[in-house]
Every structure is written in structure tokens, then in C-alpha cells.
Specification:
By secondary structure, the protein is mainly α. About 60% of the residues lie in helices and about 10% in strands. The chain is built from six helices and three strands; from the N terminus they run αββααβααα.
């Protein structure tokens, strides 16, 4: 069954051994259930806190415990911490904006394909919003440049008109 008892014995009082009883799917997740004997809990001083009104201690452990421990080690490594920082700076702000400000808290569609379309549209809307924000800055700067250019041009025209009317006298 692949379970290392030394890891889980600290849960039980005085190192009593829990025996495998059943493998069951609970809410879509497979778990192995280990139980103690009633006699193990009979004279235990922490029986009330440990099992309450039950007769025996039941420990449910996912069958993917090896994968979980390997993943936890990978995430806690130096590379894992670096990737977490990168993910927090790229993906999570986008997800937060979509869920908090763009109404994507719940996807009201039936099926994966329809949900995928909703996500694609939300990502497109997010990218367009960013693009328009960038374009607005660019347009503002171009508008300012054009306004400055036309103000210079108007000043030159006024100088030219002043020169023409002062130099040439029309009768």
C-alpha cells in the first residue's frame, strides 16, 4: 500500500499501530483508511480530544501521498521559490483582475468547451483593456506633439503676417 507508518505514528498516542482497512473514493479523491483497535484507545488520557465519541481512531490518507511530498519538496526548493515569484508577478495579477474587476467569479456555461470560450473572451478583453491603456498614452503624447507643432506653426504664420503687413504697404 506504499504507506510509511513512521510518518503517521506521531498522530497516535504512544506509537500504537494503525492497520489498513479500506481504500475508498471520497469526493472524487481516493484515500486509504487506517484504523486503530478499540483496546489501544481504552486507557488513553487524551481519548476525548483524539477520537471524541468514536470507538477507534480513523486516519484517512490520500493515495497520492508520495506525489504530494515530492511536489512540496519541489515547490520549497530554490528553483520552486523563483518560479513562484515569477508566477505571482505574471499570472496571478491577471487572474485577480479577471475575478475581482471583470466579473469572472463564476462561469455560467455547460461544458468545458463553452467555459474555455468564456476564458478566451475574458483574456481577450483583458488584453484589449491593456492595449487601449497603452494606446491612450500614445495618443495623448501624439496629440500633445501635434498641438505643439500647430502652435509653433501658428506663431510662424503670425510672424509672417506681421512681416508682410509691416514691409509692404498696400494702397
Amino acid at each position: 500500500m506504499g504507506l510509511q507508518f513512521s510518518f503517521y505514528l506521531s498522530i497516535l498516542y504512544q506509537g500504537k499501530k494503525a492497520t489498513f482497512r479500506v481504500r475508498r473514493a471520497e469526493k472524487g479523491n481516493w484515500k486509504d483508511y487506517y484504523l486503530t483497535r478499540r483496546s489501544d484507545c481504552k486507557g488513553c488520557p487524551i481519548k476525548k480530544q483524539c477520537i471524541g465519541k468514536s470507538y477507534e481512531k480513523r486516519i484517512g490518507i490520500t493515495i497520492y501521498v508520495d506525489e504530494y511530498t515530492r511536489n512540496n519538496q519541489r515547490v520549497r526548493s530554490r528553483y520552486g521559490r523563483m518560479m513562484k515569484g515569477k508566477r505571482q508577478s505574471t499570472v496571478e495579477p491577471v487572474w485577480g483582475t479577471l475575478t475581482q474587476f471583470m466579473g469572472l467569479r463564476k462561469i455560467n456555461t455547460i461544458g468545458i468547451e463553452q467555459a474555455n470560450k468564456v476564458m478566451q473572451m475574458a483574456a481577450t478583453a483583458y488584453n484589449l483593456k491593456k492595449l487601449l491603456r497603452f494606446e491612450a498614452k500614445y495618443v495623448k503624447t501624439m496629440a500633445a506633439a501635434i498641438a505643439f507643432y500647430f502652435s509653433l506653426l501658428r506663431a510662424k504664420i503670425m510672424q509672417f503676417k506681421a512681416f508682410i503687413f509691416t514691409e509692404f504697404k498696400f494702397c
